[in-house]
Amino acid sequence: MKVHEFTLILTADSNEEESDRLYSIFDDGTLATIAGVPQIHFHREAPLLEGAIGSALVNVRKAGFDVVRVEIEPKVVAQGIQVFQAEQQLHGTTT
User: Fold this and answer.
1) What's residue 95's pLDDT?
2) Residue 17: which domain range?
3) Count of structural domains within the chain
4) If you ran DSSP here, which 8-state letter would residue 80 be given?
5) Strand order in the sheet with 2-10
6) Which CATH number characterizes residue 51's domain?
7) Poorest-confidence range of 20-24, 29-33, 53-57, 86-90?
8) What number of CA atoms fall less than 13 Å from residue 80's CA on the CB side?
């Protein structure tokens, strides 16, 4: 399985109790507030990026938090495009 990196931007900061609750649900994310923006950076293992993000969203919502957006580094997006293109060539299909 592949490890996917992404960040979930939260709607609100967590207090100590809420942080403990988050960390009891997952162990592959790091909670931080950077420049006043509460966020969790994940290194989530899953076959596909979409599945990794979806499962992280479920975990965060289970802890009672809402997510404003998902952020992905441009290099991660570029790597995903390269993998997709290679798979298309391998299977003889194009977009």
Assistant:
1) 54
2) 2-91
3) 1
4) H
5) 29-34, 37-46, 2-10, 67-71
6) 3.30.70.980
7) 86-90
8) 15
Residue type, 15: N
Look at the block and give the residue holding tokens 């009891």. 24
**29-55: pLDDT as tens digits:** 999 999 999 999 999 999 998 999 999
Closest CA to 30 of 42, 21, 18, 19: 42
Nearest Cα to 2, choosing from 53, 58, 63, 57?
Answer: 53
Token duo for residue 1: 């399985």
> At 36, is the secondary structure helix, strand, or coil?
coil
Q: What DSSP state is assigned to residue 35?
A: T
**d(C-alpha 10, C-alpha 7), whole Å:** 9
Q: What is the C-alpha separation between 41 and 38, in angstroms, rounded? A: 10
Buried b (16+ CB within 10 A) or exposed e, 6-35: bbbebeeebeeeeeeebeeebebbebeeee
